[in-house]
Amino acid sequence: MVSRVIVLMKQASKWHRRRVWAIRALGGAAALVALLLATLLLTQSHLKDPIVRYVASHSQREIRVEGALRANFFSLHPSIVADGVTIGNPSWMPPGVTAQIGHIELTFGLPPKYPLQTVVIDEATLHLSRLKNGSSNWQALPPGSRSGTGPPLIRSLHMPKARVIYDDARRHLRFEGTITAQDLQGGGTLPPLRIDGAGQLNGRPTNFALNCDPLASASRDRPYRFDFMQASSETLLTGRGEVPRPFDFHSLDLRFEATGHDMKDLYFLTGLGLPNTGDYHLTGRFNRQNLHLEFTDLQARSGESDMHGTVVVEAQRDGATSHTHADLKSKRLRTADLGARAAGRGIAGNDHTVLPDTPFNLNGARHTIADVDFHAETLELGRTPVRDLAMKVKIDLGAIEVAPLSGVVRDGKVTGRIRIDVTRDIARADVDFKVAHLKLAMTDGKASPVEGPLQARLSMHGKGNSLHDLAANADGKLTAVLPHGAIRSSLAELSGFDLRGLGLMATGNEQDTGIRCALASFDLEDGTLKAQRLLVDTDPVLITGQGSISLDSEALDLKLIGRPKHPRLRIRAPLLVRGTLRHPAFSIEAKKPIAQAGGAVALGVLLTPVAAMLAFVDPGLAKDSDCGALLAETPEGKK
């Protein structure tokens, strides 16, 4: 889950282009049209066809002027007027049309530079597209080229109700609708620029608006400021930013804020595949300097969960995969605040199982290179919180490694590593977890039937596209050790099945019985935990067991047998553990009574393989625990 969230935060590093896609694409298109037709003026020619061919050749585009072409050079404000203009895609794009313009007027300043003053575009259809490699048809120069000063400054723009088809294969955006860009009259001597749009963005109704500084005051030596609003699917995105050098978007600084009922709906504004959430609030600041991109002051909240931090992206040229570095923190992160249930869109997963069957969504990792530091003061995975969770995550084009990973559960230290390969259709994972000194004392506010410092280790590898599927066909080993502790007498005696034990259970007596050592070792084969050793050594009873646990059905099939240590006759009646991991069921196996033998005879045989078990969990346990002392009493231990 956390890896998925990390991948999705990496994708957010691309927001800078999406937040200003309208002003950038339209500005580029308008500048392109102005640049091409300005060349007509600079040629000082009255020959329509030769001029058009000349401009088409130098721009690497097909250009047609079906209507009249009129130029007025003998004026304080030289102008060009053209009708029926079609501009084709450049040579670096597939064949197609960039713009179809019914009527265009350009007005210029005085020679020799002829600065562009006004642009009027009527009855326009713009076909704006970007390829996966980053090349776009609104670029005036071939990919990799950089002009010295950027596109020409325009002092006034009037483009009413232009039809725009915007298709961005790299950013997963498609917009089809109308856009109006014009100076607002009545705003004083320097009217501000307003851009309004409405249509379908990624299949959902959307509308947006940008309020910009007056074009008449734009200058190369001071920032050009704007604010923006975009709404779709009950999601609202707003912000304010500036371009330090108009209109070079290789440098950009802005702040943004997003609110809505489900963060996943941001896809319809941004193209990002974010997770389902409940009502959310997201803010941050973005700064771009050429290929260096920074998200700072990121603050996200949904339900009772929060996340904040910084994301830095080193973008690459020619569409190569960018490198992302992130430092993310959370005071409280609840899995209950993520997923379809949190968004009120149905139940995610199966309520009857412990292992969720919600599919992984890690496909984005196949196109990601990132390293992330993540820390959560509290991670709530169901009823048991994980404190002080810390992890480092590295993603390399589908290879995900989480190492080191650490946290605190019930005062016990949990450490481990995870490796996931999602380069194939079915994810493959290797997991190695260790638990040290986890306190078995309280469960949901109630006294636990077993108390003590648990030591455990899980080492497994498997494949699957959900946590349930991954476990259902995994192979590996699970070992748990309780080097000392206490167990309720009722539970210990129940496995020996005497009336005193049942009486204690009936009256709720919580008298403790000391645990000298408890061991459990399972081999994991094709999703089934098969007991190799189950042993609980208490003062009155030695409990042993056998059986299996299916991680697919989560069914329990265990049998526990009590062997009394005191010289008294007792009826052997094994305790059967059935049901499931979430809802275990206990019963007494009905069988012919058999006199119990003392446990001392069997003890040496049962503890023979204990040394290997302790070494798998923690080699120090073989020396420093009650289990180690018990091992030393056996013939094997004395050797």
Break the fold down into its secondary structure elements and pairings.
Layout: H1 2-11, H2 15-19, H3 21-42, H4 48-59, E1 63-65, E2 69-72, E3 79-88, E4 97-108, E5 116-130, E6 156-168, E7 173-183, E8 192-201, E9 204-214, E10 224-232, E11 235-243, E12 251-260, H5 267-270, E13 280-289, E14 292-302, E15 305-314, E16 323-330, E17 333-334, E18 369-381, E19 384-396, E20 399-409, E21 412-421, E22 428-443, E23 446-463, H6 467-472, E24 475-482, E25 485-488, H7 489-494, H8 499-507, E26 512-525, E27 528-538, E28 541-550, E29 556-564, E30 575-579, E31 584-588, H9 600-607, H10 610-617, H11 621-624, H12 626-632, H13 635-638
Parallel strand pairs: 5-6, 16-18, 17-18
Antiparallel strand pairs: 1-3, 2-3, 3-4, 4-5, 6-7, 7-8, 8-9, 9-10, 10-11, 11-12, 12-13, 13-14, 14-15, 15-16, 18-19, 19-20, 20-21, 21-22, 22-23, 23-24, 23-25, 24-26, 25-26, 26-27, 27-28, 28-29, 29-30, 30-31
Helix pairs in contact: 3-4
